[in-house]
Amino acid sequence: MIAYLDMPSGISGDMFLGCLIDAGWPMDALHAVIRSLDLPTDKWQVRAEKVMRGALSATLVHVEVAEDDTHRHLHHIRQIITAANLPRVVKERSVAVFQRLAAAEAAIHGVSIDEIHFHEVGALDAIIDVVGVVSGLHALGVQQLYAGGVPLGEGWTRSAHGRIPLPAPATLALLAAANAPNRPAPGSGELVTPTGAALLAELAIFQQPPMRLHTIGYGAGQKEFEWPNVARLWLATAPGAGTLPSPSLPAEGLFIRGDGIGVLPAQAESGEQPKGYFVQLETNIDDMSPELYGAARACLFEAGALDVWTTPIQMKKERPGTLLSVLAPVDLEETIATTVLRETTSLGVRIHPVYRYEAQREMRTVQTPYGPVRVKLKWVDGKLEGVKAEYEDCRALAEASDLSVRSVYEAAQVAAYGELGR
User: Fold this and answer.
1) pTM here?
2) Looking at the structure, do residues 159 and 211 belong to the same domain, yes or no?
3) Spatial distance between the Cα atoms of 103 and 128, rounded to a whole number of angstroms
4) Distance of CA 334 to the CA centre of its chain
5) If we measure between CA atoms, which residue out of 82, 126, 128 comes closest to residue 100?
6) What is the pLDDT of residues 341-355, one digit of tens each?
7) Left, alpha or beta for 269 (phi > 0: left; psi -120 to 50: alpha)?
8) How many Cβ atoms are within 10 Å of 114's Cβ, its own excluded?
9) Domain match, 55 and 199 both
């Protein structure tokens, strides 16, 4: 999954959140993310509504916070984010956005990053905007964000430092550092906020790639102009990638798992194995004793891994190594990653969202001359395409009857096809 941010009327943090909610990320998930930040519950309220901006319907997200005079430094914001119960990648990218903001403010005011008081951009609404946007992109499975040209308007605005020209100095500094393309705005006013610019600078590649479109999310700005004040998030897959169900289609059903930060197919609500969406974790290892791989594999399966495999690889300095790969459900990403780090000598784990097509599977028990054996039936488009006897059942019967496992296995295959009339 990739995404393209189209900004006919600029971008702010709440407009970006509106795009994500409009594209299918539930408000309950955003609320869960904010609660994980352990912010005082009486200090914030976030709600969404459908509005019209010109002739266009869009989602407007209201991020309302109580009066907050706290002048937070970067390390204060880092502490809030890193203590949250969120995926590591979400916390790292969110902190990186604020790191950019701090660097821009420090350059403008001629002080060090550690001396910066964040004022507006360190307020609770900015923290909610930044962590919310990064979490929403992660939850929707967006691996790369792209963006078009940024419209920059003229005028003046008020800040904690007094009256300043538009575009705001921090906005210009952030976009300049990212070498972001810009274009004339449709009118005057602050169309791109420092928070919006920081999200773009950290997360986006400024180009429009080839893509296969699936869903368009419209986010509304707070102000009404003579033109539609909206941003648009195009959710898509790269050409040649498998087609993904649109997250805006409730018929296919998407739900947010308990921690509010992941998207899985709806059948997982009933406890069934999710179909299609997974994560693949991998790490290169060249300094671990071979016998430890068996123990690590057992621990990973116990933690919920669907498959674990190793591949011989050649690493730097001509050292032989091993690529350890794990396929896991999306909601076990952090558990599996932690297990890899604990049970191996690895210092880091790469994580890739993956999507796979699955044949329908059915378990049955068939009777053989040696006893009952469970068999797995494989169905494709309603047709039986394969039968596989369970090895452990065959082994147990073979030992009890003093036969080869192959003999019992073949008997189970024959029995299965016989019961199915094949």
Assistant:
1) 0.59
2) yes
3) 20
4) 12
5) 126
6) 999 999 999 988 887
7) alpha
8) 10
9) yes
